[in-house]
Amino acid sequence: MNPESSELPPLAWPEFTDETARLAWWRACIQAWREQWNNPAPVAPVNAKEIDALEQRLGCTLPPLLRRYHETLGALELAERLCSVTPAKYASIEPLLAAYPGIHDILEGASDAASQWALVNQLIAFGDYLSNGNLWCFHRETGEVWYFDHDSSPMLTQIFTDVGQYLDVLMFKCLLEAHGEEDNEDLLREHLGDDVVEEWMY
Fold first, then answer.
1. What is the spatial distance between Cα 147 and Cα 109, in angstroms, rounded to a whole number?
2. pLDDT at position 85 over 80
3. pLDDT tens figures, 117-171
Protein backbone atom coordinates (compact mmCIF):
# COMPACT_ATOMS: atom_id res chain seq x y z
CA MET A 1 0.00 0.00 0.00
CA ASN A 2 1.31 3.46 -0.89
CA PRO A 3 2.19 5.28 2.35
CA GLU A 4 0.91 8.50 0.76
CA SER A 5 -2.53 7.05 0.04
CA SER A 6 -5.34 9.16 1.48
CA GLU A 7 -6.88 5.95 2.83
CA LEU A 8 -3.92 5.24 5.09
CA PRO A 9 -4.42 6.85 8.50
CA PRO A 10 -1.58 9.12 9.58
CA LEU A 11 1.04 7.64 11.86
CA ALA A 12 -0.14 9.46 14.97
CA TRP A 13 -2.01 8.58 18.13
CA PRO A 14 -5.63 9.64 17.58
CA GLU A 15 -7.90 11.39 20.05
CA PHE A 16 -11.36 9.84 19.89
CA THR A 17 -14.51 11.91 20.26
CA ASP A 18 -16.64 8.84 20.90
CA GLU A 19 -16.75 5.06 20.54
CA THR A 20 -17.94 5.29 16.92
CA ALA A 21 -14.82 7.26 16.01
CA ARG A 22 -12.64 4.74 17.82
CA LEU A 23 -14.15 1.80 15.94
CA ALA A 24 -13.81 3.68 12.63
CA TRP A 25 -10.09 4.20 13.32
CA TRP A 26 -9.67 0.53 14.22
CA ARG A 27 -11.37 -0.42 10.95
CA ALA A 28 -9.07 1.88 8.95
CA CYS A 29 -5.96 0.44 10.64
CA ILE A 30 -7.13 -3.12 9.95
CA GLN A 31 -7.77 -2.25 6.31
CA ALA A 32 -4.30 -0.72 5.99
CA TRP A 33 -2.81 -3.87 7.55
CA ARG A 34 -4.77 -6.18 5.23
CA GLU A 35 -3.75 -4.33 2.09
CA GLN A 36 -0.12 -5.33 2.67
CA TRP A 37 -0.91 -8.98 1.90
CA ASN A 38 -1.95 -10.75 -1.27
CA ASN A 39 -4.30 -13.05 0.62
CA PRO A 40 -5.15 -11.28 3.86
CA ALA A 41 -7.09 -12.92 6.65
CA PRO A 42 -10.72 -11.81 6.42
CA VAL A 43 -12.53 -9.32 8.56
CA ALA A 44 -15.11 -11.60 10.11
CA PRO A 45 -17.67 -10.06 12.50
CA VAL A 46 -19.14 -12.55 14.94
CA ASN A 47 -22.83 -13.17 15.51
CA ALA A 48 -24.02 -11.83 18.86
CA LYS A 49 -25.42 -15.26 19.72
CA GLU A 50 -21.92 -16.74 19.51
CA ILE A 51 -20.67 -14.11 21.94
CA ASP A 52 -23.57 -14.86 24.26
CA ALA A 53 -22.61 -18.55 24.14
CA LEU A 54 -18.98 -17.66 24.94
CA GLU A 55 -20.04 -15.57 27.92
CA GLN A 56 -22.14 -18.49 29.13
CA ARG A 57 -19.07 -20.77 28.94
CA LEU A 58 -16.87 -18.23 30.72
CA GLY A 59 -19.37 -17.33 33.40
CA CYS A 60 -18.73 -13.62 32.81
CA THR A 61 -19.36 -10.94 30.22
CA LEU A 62 -16.73 -9.75 27.77
CA PRO A 63 -15.46 -6.22 28.30
CA PRO A 64 -17.82 -3.97 26.26
CA LEU A 65 -15.20 -2.82 23.74
CA LEU A 66 -13.95 -6.36 23.16
CA ARG A 67 -17.52 -7.43 22.46
CA ARG A 68 -18.04 -4.49 20.08
CA TYR A 69 -14.77 -5.33 18.33
CA HIS A 70 -15.81 -8.91 17.63
CA GLU A 71 -19.37 -7.94 16.68
CA THR A 72 -18.27 -5.28 14.18
CA LEU A 73 -14.74 -6.22 13.03
CA GLY A 74 -13.65 -9.63 14.26
CA ALA A 75 -10.28 -9.75 12.47
CA LEU A 76 -7.92 -12.08 14.35
CA GLU A 77 -4.64 -12.18 12.43
CA LEU A 78 -3.11 -8.73 12.82
CA ALA A 79 0.24 -7.46 14.10
CA GLU A 80 -0.64 -9.81 16.97
CA ARG A 81 -3.21 -12.58 17.04
CA LEU A 82 -6.52 -12.11 18.79
CA CYS A 83 -8.24 -15.20 20.14
CA SER A 84 -11.50 -16.28 18.54
CA VAL A 85 -14.97 -16.14 20.08
CA THR A 86 -15.78 -19.64 18.87
CA PRO A 87 -13.75 -22.59 20.21
CA ALA A 88 -10.43 -23.06 18.40
CA LYS A 89 -7.45 -25.15 19.41
CA TYR A 90 -4.82 -23.00 21.15
CA ALA A 91 -6.45 -19.73 20.06
CA SER A 92 -9.90 -19.20 21.57
CA ILE A 93 -11.01 -16.82 24.30
CA GLU A 94 -10.87 -18.96 27.41
CA PRO A 95 -9.67 -18.96 31.03
CA LEU A 96 -5.93 -18.41 31.28
CA LEU A 97 -5.36 -21.79 32.93
CA ALA A 98 -7.14 -23.56 30.06
CA ALA A 99 -5.06 -21.61 27.56
CA TYR A 100 -1.78 -22.38 29.35
CA PRO A 101 -2.07 -25.43 31.69
CA GLY A 102 1.70 -25.27 32.29
CA ILE A 103 0.99 -22.63 34.95
CA HIS A 104 0.74 -25.60 37.33
CA ASP A 105 4.44 -26.25 36.76
CA ILE A 106 5.40 -22.57 36.98
CA LEU A 107 3.71 -22.08 40.36
CA GLU A 108 4.69 -25.41 41.90
CA GLY A 109 6.51 -24.59 45.11
CA ALA A 110 6.35 -20.81 44.56
CA SER A 111 6.28 -18.80 47.80
CA ASP A 112 3.43 -16.62 46.50
CA ALA A 113 1.53 -19.46 44.82
CA ALA A 114 -1.74 -18.79 46.69
CA SER A 115 -1.97 -15.15 45.63
CA GLN A 116 -0.86 -15.99 42.10
CA TRP A 117 -3.51 -18.68 41.78
CA ALA A 118 -6.15 -16.25 43.02
CA LEU A 119 -5.22 -13.91 40.17
CA VAL A 120 -4.82 -16.63 37.52
CA ASN A 121 -8.33 -17.87 38.25
CA GLN A 122 -9.73 -14.40 37.48
CA LEU A 123 -8.00 -13.99 34.11
CA ILE A 124 -9.43 -14.72 30.65
CA ALA A 125 -7.03 -15.00 27.71
CA PHE A 126 -8.16 -12.96 24.69
CA GLY A 127 -4.95 -12.30 22.75
CA ASP A 128 -1.96 -14.43 21.77
CA TYR A 129 1.11 -12.18 21.50
CA LEU A 130 2.97 -13.99 18.71
CA SER A 131 1.89 -17.60 19.23
CA ASN A 132 4.83 -17.99 21.60
CA GLY A 133 2.84 -18.83 24.73
CA ASN A 134 2.63 -15.26 26.01
CA LEU A 135 -0.97 -14.14 26.35
CA TRP A 136 -3.08 -11.03 26.88
CA CYS A 137 -5.81 -11.48 29.48
CA PHE A 138 -8.63 -9.45 30.95
CA HIS A 139 -9.69 -9.68 34.59
CA ARG A 140 -13.22 -11.02 34.74
CA GLU A 141 -14.21 -8.53 37.47
CA THR A 142 -12.18 -5.36 36.94
CA GLY A 143 -11.63 -5.52 33.16
CA GLU A 144 -7.92 -4.71 33.63
CA VAL A 145 -5.56 -6.16 31.03
CA TRP A 146 -2.74 -8.37 32.22
CA TYR A 147 0.22 -9.73 30.26
CA PHE A 148 1.10 -13.37 30.93
CA ASP A 149 4.75 -14.19 30.21
CA HIS A 150 5.43 -17.88 30.73
CA ASP A 151 9.19 -17.46 30.54
CA SER A 152 9.90 -14.46 32.78
CA SER A 153 9.33 -13.15 36.27
CA PRO A 154 6.92 -11.77 37.18
CA MET A 155 4.67 -14.15 35.30
CA LEU A 156 1.79 -11.65 35.31
CA THR A 157 1.98 -7.90 34.81
CA GLN A 158 -0.95 -5.50 34.69
CA ILE A 159 -0.32 -3.18 31.73
CA PHE A 160 -3.60 -1.60 30.59
CA THR A 161 -6.65 -0.48 32.53
CA ASP A 162 -9.02 -1.91 29.91
CA VAL A 163 -9.14 -3.88 26.65
CA GLY A 164 -9.77 -0.74 24.61
CA GLN A 165 -6.30 0.58 25.47
CA TYR A 166 -4.71 -2.67 24.32
CA LEU A 167 -6.68 -2.66 21.06
CA ASP A 168 -5.63 0.95 20.40
CA VAL A 169 -1.99 -0.08 20.69
CA LEU A 170 -2.51 -3.19 18.54
CA MET A 171 -4.07 -1.07 15.80
CA PHE A 172 -1.16 1.36 16.04
CA LYS A 173 1.26 -1.55 15.60
CA CYS A 174 -0.67 -2.51 12.44
CA LEU A 175 -0.39 1.08 11.26
CA LEU A 176 3.37 1.12 11.90
CA GLU A 177 3.80 -1.86 9.59
CA ALA A 178 1.48 -0.39 6.95
CA HIS A 179 3.66 2.72 6.94
CA GLY A 180 6.78 0.58 6.59
CA GLU A 181 7.87 1.41 10.12
CA GLU A 182 7.50 -2.01 11.73
CA ASP A 183 10.92 -1.75 13.41
CA ASN A 184 10.37 1.79 14.72
CA GLU A 185 9.47 1.56 18.39
CA ASP A 186 10.01 5.23 19.23
CA LEU A 187 6.34 6.16 19.01
CA LEU A 188 5.36 3.13 21.08
CA ARG A 189 7.95 3.99 23.72
CA GLU A 190 6.80 7.62 23.82
CA HIS A 191 3.21 6.51 24.35
CA LEU A 192 3.67 3.50 26.64
CA GLY A 193 7.01 4.07 28.32
CA ASP A 194 10.17 2.00 28.10
CA ASP A 195 9.19 -0.39 30.90
CA VAL A 196 6.02 -1.54 29.14
CA VAL A 197 7.74 -2.00 25.78
CA GLU A 198 10.58 -3.97 27.38
CA GLU A 199 8.18 -6.23 29.30
CA TRP A 200 5.96 -6.79 26.27
CA MET A 201 8.36 -7.22 23.38
CA TYR A 202 11.64 -8.47 24.85
1. 22
2. yes
3. 999 999 999 998 766 779 999 999 999 999 999 888 889 999 999 999 999 999 9
Q: How far apart are CA 103 and CA 118, in angstroms?
A: 13
User: Using CA of residue 170, residue 171, residue 177, residue 182, what is the dihedral sign?
Assistant: negative
Q: Where are the beta strands (DSSP E) in 76-161?
A: 81-82, 94-95, 123-128, 135-139, 145-148, 156-160
Residues 6 or more apart whose CB falls under 8 angstroms from that of 201 comprise 185
Q: What distance in Å separates the CA atoms of residue 90 and residue 87, rounded to the nearest whole number?
A: 9
Decide: helix, strand or coil at residue 143.
coil
pTM score, whole prediction: 0.90
